[in-house]
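Question (not urgent): is this output format expected?
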Amino acid sequence: MFELGYHASHEQFTPANLLAHAQAAQRAGLRHAMCSDHFAPFSEEQGQSGFAWTWLGAAMQATEMTFGTVSAPGQRYHPAVLAQAAATTSALFPGRFWLALGTGENLNEHITGDMWPAKEVRKRRLLECVSVMRSLLAGETVTHDGLVRVHEAKLYTRPATPPPLLGAAVSAETAAWVATWADGMVTVNQPREKLTQVVRAFRDHGGAHKPMYLQVHLSLHPFEALSLAHRAWRTGALEPPLRWDVHASAQFDLAASFVRPEDMHGCVRVSSTFEEQLALLQEDGELGFDRIYLHQVTPNQQLLLDAVAKHLG
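Got this back:
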């Protein structure tokens, strides 16, 4: 059986509004939440992008839910600093935090002024970062000279149990790779055949007994679900490597100007009733996902949370 969670989108809401949504999610009966960790939104129209780690402290203090986020160490975040952030969060809220690691997107990472590496280089860099972070979380003093550099770093504040370090994957190839080093996997909804391939690749290459989390982009509205999804999340229809390499929100908007409303069905689950969403979520559960985080891509978050409360009640 899977558990439902709430996805908090920093790109679409102010931190204060997002905090209110997280509290509403708990009142609706949800026990889990996750949030994005970006420097910029995917669209100028979205217009927000608060700092995830500041918000996580506030949200975890204001609720009793577990929380997680997906971060990219190696460029915008030095791995030692990210390990310190994860350690402090876990020390404050034992057993309630997980961190997923990915290779990142140029949209967030270009701000350092460093060159945006090729995907294979980013994968090697991520593995170095994972090794550094695991060593720091274990209490070791770390010096490392590679694609990232660390000099005599040590974490003096650590939780009794390190937070799980999951891996972010969208393709079957990446899922197979993530299974070799991560404590679990986080992925996103996509057509059923592709999602099945991602799950199978993760399970077959070392992830057979590791947790899997799924983030589901959905648009729930009785009359305007498709048009609202297109307005709010049309950049979500852009495929890799484009979405990895574009470096500005305005460029995302330009690329997404060619996305038609009907194209949204490939990246957002559009429906007029929550019952339709539940049928698809049951299929996700049959694939073996332990938690499914719901991301209502349209502004009306309460519409989803009211439906969740009715279902869980």
